Amino acid sequence: MAPVLPLVLPLQPRIRLAQGLWLLSWLLALAGGVILLCSGHLLVQLRHLGTFLAPSCQFPVLPQAALAAGAVALGTGLVGVGASRASLNAALYPPWRGVLGPLLVAGTAGGGGLLVVALGLALALPGSLDEALEEGLVTALAHYKDTEVPGHCQAKRLVDELQLRYHCCGRHGYKDWFGVQWVSSRYLDPGDRDVADRIQSNVEGLYLTDGVPFSCCNPHSPRPCLQNRLSDSYAHPLFDPRQPNQNLWAQGCHEVLLEHLQDLAGTLGSMLAVTFLLQALVLLGLRYLQTALEGLGGVIDAGGETQGYLFPSGLKDMLKTAWLQGGVACRPAPEEAPPAEAPPKEDLSEA
Q: What stretches pass through the bilayer (predicted)?
């Protein structure tokens, strides 16, 4: 049975293959380290922004899977560096001869599988961010006023920090604040006629105003922040609501966070794709180098030609042999016929 994808490797091509693998392995280790950094950065970002995602959002699974894939890629790269270097030194290769095969199997099944899973998540999960951010921001804005409610005491601080840090206001714009009560009832005077009228006029009994929190104000604006009565054209005659960037942040936090997280996921996905390609090249090269050296009995400086391959026989023949062996093993043994009864012996004495 002929081996799968054989390749003749004399001494000089084997040396060049080992040297190229040494370089590719360092690149793989570097790519694995970069994935670890990108995954860690995304995890830190999600730790701060997780409040603004729906509880059912699966996006945090992406950096966790990428973290595992990056660690395996880093280990595979370091193994490739050691094995390719040892293949050029007769004194260093014998310890690698017995462990290189299992390491290749583990790197292909474990590392390749993790990279495929992480790459698939990087392509699929960012699409779920839109709805997750929409639901999370609606909840965050609704709890902005609950500064003394257990479980939501930090909502106001987190939303203010979000709007100041990412230069955004509301979900899709500053008018989103008009539809939620963002002032705590503790700081409302029930005896004030305007407050009482606004609460009574609302079906849900909420205090709604055409104002925004201070964190919506652009500190780079040359004029004082306009927070209240924003829909009243007579209250601010010099304020043009068609140009909110002169005083308030123009973008909503939904668009800003969606673009930010998708950019991080896109960068991570690109690194995963590059790492997958590098790991495939390193594992293929190590397999050819290993089988070529095994053909020489582990004598790495032998001058004769040898053949490297992926599998020792054709896949069809391997599967057929395994199927036949499995069929023979599972086939019940034929039942043995019961021994024939011996004919009765004649009594010679009676005869």
A: 21-44, 64-83, 103-125, 264-286
